[in-house]
Amino acid sequence: MTRTWFITGTSSGFGRELTEQLLRRGDRVAATARRPHTLDDLAARHGDQLWRAALDITDTTALREVVDRAFAELGRIDVVVSNAGYGLFGAAEELTDEQIDRQIATNLTASIQLARAATPHLRRQGGGRFVQIASVGGQIAFPAMSLYHATKWGIEGFWESAAAELAPFGIDVTIVEPGVSRTNFGAGGSVLGPPLPEYADGPSGQLRRMAAGELPPLPAPGDPAKIAAAIIARADQAGGPLRLTLGSDAYALATDALGNRLRALEAQRELAHSTDADS
Length: 279
What we know:
Layout: E1 4-7, H1 13-24, E2 28-33, H2 40-46, E3 50-54, H3 60-74, E4 79-82, E5 87-89, H4 97-125, E6 128-133, H5 146-166, E7 171-178, E8 190-192, H6 203-211, H7 224-235, E9 243-246, H8 248-266, H9 269-274
Helix pairs in contact: 1-7, 3-4, 4-5
Keywords: Oxidoreductase
Organism: Saccharothrix coeruleofusca
GO molecular function: oxidoreductase activity
């Protein structure tokens, strides 16, 4: 059965890979990007299967207009994928106010506003699915990525709550948590804050140099094509777990982080109970 998808950030990375695979299997894709001409080759091959719109997702008014137009012109959208985002590297002290505002607006606020814009349409049509491309960075944290992690931990909390709100309307939610993948997220697709010499020799400075391409990058086991295929397969299934962790590194990092947090919590059991009111 042909399905229709709405995807943000389709010019590169997971968004582009998802769009290509979906078009090849015969689905329709409403693809948004700041530069929709980057999809000219796909439009030439797939014609009316591909619906395109220019969109800066931080422009909430434009975001709502594009979502409304996509539903109006395509009739029904089965899956809404919030994919657009980028990495911001630098210790919190190093980042500019503008960089902080842009990171939150792109990675967090825009995803929330996309959900708010699409929910009335999905509710009226009797259901659908949201797919949030998040990151294992919503479960773990590295130095020099504090603002990036803030957005990813934030979107995890948003969807944890919103999934329960939407379930009665037949709207499913999948949070995708990839590890390091072979996309342009690193040196090609990220932003660096202005460096302070005080951080140069510490862990923040080391990770910054990796992001800048001055040191060998972290291993990137994730295959974007396989990750996109796994996302599509999950979206084809009714229900399913809220989170989809993809990549051997993501699995190992999340397992370690969650285990450490659980052990730290268990060690505080008596203290936690001791602060209850006597009555």
